[in-house]
């Protein structure tokens, strides 16, 4: 029986890639598997996947980053192309780790990032597992009004009475 590392036995570090500090955890050996977390207050790679990391590390080289804007990584995203910004940072992390092709598991926002990675660099993606992926049909278009409000919130601007008020119809 193989011993499984616990989530606190994962090596963690922060690297500077694509102009951003990316914090990540890593353990295991074998084919690489990247786990991309969802969004929301307090989201991070480990908080999203801590119950899966040890078992997966028995079979794969598991890499669990905090995407830009979350956890220990650089805050803020390119508001004009947030999914592209995340995908660029994750691909740059893979470059730094000398990983050519990878399987990616993406949850919500992580699913949108994984989709964008596959659209931009299909030769880098060996497989995708998407759990409630955000951004379906929006990963290559401009952010919606709702996404812009969410980005304002995570940029520290927060919602305002004006930005949250329903628009009034004029006749």
How would you sum up this structure, described in words?
With 171 residues, the protein is of the alpha/beta class. The protein has one domain (11-158): Alpha/Beta hydrolase fold, catalytic domain (Rossmann fold, 3-Layer(aba) Sandwich). The chain is 32% helix and 22% strand. Strands 1-2-4-3-5-6 form a six-stranded mixed β-sheet, sandwiched between helices. Helix 2 (82-96) crosses helix 3. The relative contact order is 0.15.
- Write the H/E string, N to C: EEEHEHEHEHH
Return residue spans where pLDDT drops below 50 for at least 5 consecutive residues: 159-171
Q: N- to C-terminal separation?
A: 72 Å
Principal-axes geometry comes out as: globular
The structural domain count equals 1
Helix content: 25-40%
Return the CATH architecture. Answer: 3-Layer(aba) Sandwich
**Major β-sheet, in short?**
6 strands, mixed
User: Based on the structure, what is the oligomeric state of the protein chains?
Assistant: single chain
On the 0-100 scale, what is the average pLDDT? Answer: 84
Kindly provide the name of the CATH class: Alpha Beta
Rg: 17 Å
CATH superfamily annotation:
Alpha/Beta hydrolase fold, catalytic domain
Query: Number of helical runs?
Result: 5
Helix/strand/pairing category: alpha/beta
How much strand content do the residues show?
Answer: 15-25%
């Amino acid at each position: 029986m193989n011993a499984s590392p616990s989530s606190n036995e994962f090596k963690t570090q922060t690297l500077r890639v694509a102009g951003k500090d990316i914090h990540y955890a890593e353990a295991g050996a074998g084919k690489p598997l990247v786990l991309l977390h969802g969004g929301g207050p307090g989201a991070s790679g480990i908080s999203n996947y801590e119950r899966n990391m040890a078992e997966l590390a028995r079979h794969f080289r598991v890499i669990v980053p905090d995407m830009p804007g979350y956890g220990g990584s650089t805050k803020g995203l390119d508001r004009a192309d947030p999914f592209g910004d995340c995908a660029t940072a994750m691909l740059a992390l893979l470059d730094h780790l000398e990983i050519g092709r990878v399987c990616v598991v993406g949850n919500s926002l992580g699913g949108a990032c994984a989709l964008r990675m596959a659209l931009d660099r299909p030769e880098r993606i060996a497989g995708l597992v998407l759990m409630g992926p955000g951004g379906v049909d929006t990963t290559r278009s401009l952010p919606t009004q709702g996404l812009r409000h969410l980005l304002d919130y995570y940029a520290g601007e927060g919602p305002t009475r004006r930005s949250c008020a329903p628009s009034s119809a004029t006749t």
